[in-house]
Amino acid sequence: PRECHDDAKIQMRIGIHTGTIVAGCIGTKALRYDIFGTDCLVGNKFESEGIPGKICVSEASKKLLGRQIYNGTPKRHF
Questions:
Q1: Does residue 23 contact residue 35 with C-beta atoms inside 8 Å?
Q2: Lowest mean pLDDT among 3-7, 52-56, 66-70
Q3: Which segments within the chain are labelled E, that is strand?
Q4: How far apart, in whole angstroms, are the C-alpha atoms of residue 78 and residue 76?
Q5: Is-contact 61 19, C-beta < 8 A?
Q6: Buried/exposed code over 1-39 (b: 16+ C-beta within 10 A; e: otherwise)
Q7: pLDDT at 8 over 50
Q8: Please, how many CA atoms are within 13 Å of residue 43, restricted to the half-sphere of its CB?
Q9: What pLDDT, on a 0 to 100 scale, did the predictor assign at position 4?
C-alpha cells in the first residue's frame, strides 16, 4: 500500500478547449485508443503552458459554457 502524507500538495495544471477531434484504435497486437486533431493539440497546449493550481479555458470553451463562467470562476459546481 502507498503511504499517505497529509502535508503533500498537488500542483495540477488543467487546460480545457472545445473543438473537433478524430478518435480511434491504433495497433494490431496491443490496441490503443487515441484522439487526434488540431483542437486536441490546442487543449494540450492550454494544459502544458498553464499555471499550476489554475484552470486555463479557451475562448471556444468559454463561449460554449456561456453564463456558467464568470471571470474564470465557476458559478456552480459541476
A1: yes
A2: 66-70
A3: 14-16, 22-26, 32-36, 55-57, 69-70, 73-74
A4: 6
A5: no
A6: eeeeeeeeeeeeeebbbbeeeeeeeeeeeeeeeeeeeeb
A7: yes
A8: 14
A9: 67
CA–CA gap between residue 21 and residue 35 (Å, rounded)? 7
Query: d(Cα 67, Cα 69) in Å, to the nearest integer?
Result: 5
Res 77: pLDDT: 43
Amino acid in the structure at residue 59: E
Residue 32: all three cell numbers together: 490503443
Spatial separation of the C-alpha atoms in residues 23 and 38, rounded to whole Å = 12
